[in-house]
Design a protein that fits this description.
Layout: E1 2-3, E2 6-7, E3 11-13, E4 20-23, E5 34-37, H1 40-48, H2 55-72, H3 76-87, H4 94-107, H5 115-150, E6 158-162, H6 179-186, E7 191-196, H7 203-215, E8 219-222, H8 227-232, E9 238-241, E10 245-247, E11 252-255, H9 258-267, E12 272-275, E13 281-282, H10 288-291, H11 300-303, E14 304-308, E15 314-318, E16 331-334, E17 341-344, E18 347-349, H12 353-359, H13 361-364
Amino acid sequence: MKVDDRHYRSIWLDADGWSVAAIDQRKLPHEFVVAQLTTCEEAADAIRTMLVRGAPLIGATAAFGIALAMRQDSSDDGLDRAYQTLVVARPTAINLEWALEKMRATLGPLDPAERVDAAYARADEILEQDVAINQGIARHGLPLIEAIAARKEPGEPVNVLTHCNAGWLATVDWGTATAPIYLAHEQGVAVHVWVDETRPRNQGAALTAWELGHHGVPHTVIPDNTGGHLMQHGMVDLVIVGTDRVAGNGDVCNKIGTYLKALAARDNNVPFYVALPSPTIDFSVSDGIRQIPIEQRGAIEVTDMTGRTADGRVETVRIVPEGSPVANYGFDVTPARLVTGLITERGVLKPNRAALAAAFPERAGAVK
């Protein structure tokens, strides 16, 4: 997508042909910094510290992490160490393990001397696959927006509410929840996005607003607790969110606060859609609420906030009293009964095992 009319992806192979460049999302929106990753350990740290974040981008970064590791040690032990280093970097997003399994399946049968080139080639395939998947999500999600636009007065925008950042910064390009929005905007459909700030890391205010603004999409940042009010007053036409893992039964795990938006949407008859690439589906999980591990992150994400001061300095300040305990659950699970549909690269699906398995039999059949 575009940053001030220049096309960017969130991650790419650098000009030297072997190191990996990635937008440092910890610096946004106040600084645009491109980080260089040169080792497997640096790739794992980028995932762990959220230099990169978003389930699809985590998977792509992990794939390149394996490639970087193979440059240092392409033996069986080296491959296993790289896998183990990366797989524990983030516990919730299933794309991480998916990408690592793809890399291991490709490299495992090869002679160690062949693994470096093969690793970079496979990582690049995963990168391009993510872009293609998100373009598919855009194509299948666009008619949902167009149908609403057709019922409105000419020029009246379709109002979409989204949560966290499921934009191109969370993927390689296009995004998941934002993909239909970007395509609608590109095709001249009037669209406006309500952007949840998404505490505690403010990925909506810091990232979604930044990328929508730089791409020219009309949007408004709102506090997390505003969505229900907007829905009550007919100011939201549909909700589209992303996800870090979808259980085989259609339960959706996404950034904390998503469940509350789904409840408000159901109470106000607002369609609630989840956009997801197929690698995010975990058919081994039959009950998302009870089986998906929920990451608990550090207290500092809640106690401290970073922003730009009036004189231009970027400062971090504490907003919680010293000594107050903090609970920081990173995700929650929205039960399938609250989901109107799942927007995938193969169509808009009902949120249940039968529909998911029919659309992705190769994934469902791999789980015993």
